[in-house]
Amino acid sequence: MDNTLLNTLYDTYKEPKIFGRYITLKDLTPLMDKLSDVFTIDCIGQSVLSKNIYSITLGKGPKKILMWSQMHGNESTTTKACFDLLNTLYDGQLISILDKCTIKIIPMLNPDGSEAYTRLNANQVDLNRDAQALTQPESQVLQDCYTAFKPDFCLNLHGQRTLFSAGQTNNIATLSFLSPAADVDRSLTLARKQAMEIINAINQTLQLDLPDQIGRYDDGFNINCVGDTFQNLNTPTVLFEAGHYKDDYEREEVRRFVYKSLVVTLNYIANHDVTGDNYQDYFKIPENGKLFYDIIIKNAQFDNGVFDIGINYQERLVDKQLKFIPKIIAIEDLSDFHAHKVLIANNSKVFTSNNEVVSINYENDFVIINNVKLSLNL
């Protein structure tokens, strides 16, 4: 699709009532109410804490696409992009998609985890490791929806941490994708090839925005993961991972890229026979590395030598507000790593607020170098 058109659509239909990283069911309910005169909104089950889980169904075409977001409650970027997409389709744009596809979206599979801003559900279970045992009500809701809807394609929408690089490079993995393995041998089944073909279409378009900033997620097989399970059942499944972009800790720029990826995906499925023949370029997408820290303080002096200090933000919900808390997680030679922000100690000692030399697990929004307080905040 034309990149200029995609940007225009996003700027026109971005949903203004949701912003940032902390998105809960209360934020989504009025948005679904607004859409309900055109799309079908169903309560398809309830969470551990009896919060409703909804699906939104739209389109009338024969190609059926199932997509779900916030399986992990603290991964909300794709949820925002889903409502940007829904606004676009609600207003009658991209009509060929709705003519050729029937789309079912579960915008928040884990409302309890979303409220608590945690990866897990209220029973402290990772729903993406419960695809076989189906011990949790949310897992059962997704499985029941899959069984009843019988999708031709699945889109598994997630978010990834700021540590990922696109390959073994200093390029941030702003987006990552995966065609999950269907078996322990990672066989190139037809479903896998079809998912790879879709990812290639996304990559070709989004490289204009993100040159060398798109990664390929590790495809180690785990039948307990939902994507692996559905791929094993011969349903082409694409994993989306919304990552980091420069200075975009609220993931609002990444939101744009996810939106565009979703539009490209739906348009490609709607207007192409996805045979799986065009899968080869998938393997040219670099596999994700783990080469980034949020902050690195270079060349800090310690009693036993000069080392770098690696700091990552801990995302914590405090009084219903999301806070990014800097925490030291590494003191070592980090010359093979990169950072979203770099400070230089110039062989000086780095002190805490109590004038002690910093150590692993130190948390604060500043450090002191040469009697100067340096902020570690965003």
Description:
- The structure is a single chain.
- With 378 residues, the protein is α/β, with parallel strands linked by helices.
- It has two domains: 3-290, Zn peptidases (Aminopeptidase, 3-Layer(aba) Sandwich), CATH 3.40.630; 292-375, Urease, subunit C, domain 1.
- The protein has helices at residues 3-13, 25-35, 77-90, 95-100, 111-116, 137-149, 190-206, 226-232, 252-271, and strands at 40-46, 52-59, 63-68, 101-106, 153-159, 164-165, 175-178, 214-216, 237-242, 289-290, 292-302, 305-318, 321-332, 338-348, 350-351, 366-369, 372-375.
- The strands form four sheets. An eight-stranded mixed β-sheet has the order 1-2-4-3-5-9-7-8, with helices on both faces. Strands 13-12-11-14 form a four-stranded mixed β-sheet, with no helix packed on it.
- A hairpin with a 2-residue loop joins strand 12 (305-318) and strand 13.
- Helix 1 (3-13) crosses helix 3 and helix 7 packs across helix 9.
- It is globular, with a radius of gyration of 22 Å.
- The relative contact order is 0.13.
- The mean pLDDT is 98.
Task: Briefly summarize what is shown.
Residues 9-269 form the Peptidase M14 domain. Its cofactor is Zn(2+). The protein is an alpha/beta fold and 378 residues long.
Overall mean pLDDT score? Answer: 98
Low-confidence stretches: none
What proportion of the residues form beta strands (DSSP E)?
25-35%
The strands making up the biggest β-sheet line up spatially as: 1-2-4-3-5-9-7-8
The DSSP helix count reads 9
Which fold does the CATH topology of the largest domain refer to?
Answer: Aminopeptidase
- What is the succession of H and E elements? HHEEEHHEHHEEEHEHEHEEEEEEEE
Q: What is the number of strand segments?
A: 17
Tally of individual domains: 2
Shape: globular
Helix-strand makeup class: alpha/beta
Keywords: Hydrolase, Metalloprotease, Protease, Zinc
Protein name: Peptidase M14
Cofactor: Zn(2+)
InterPro entries: Peptidase_M14
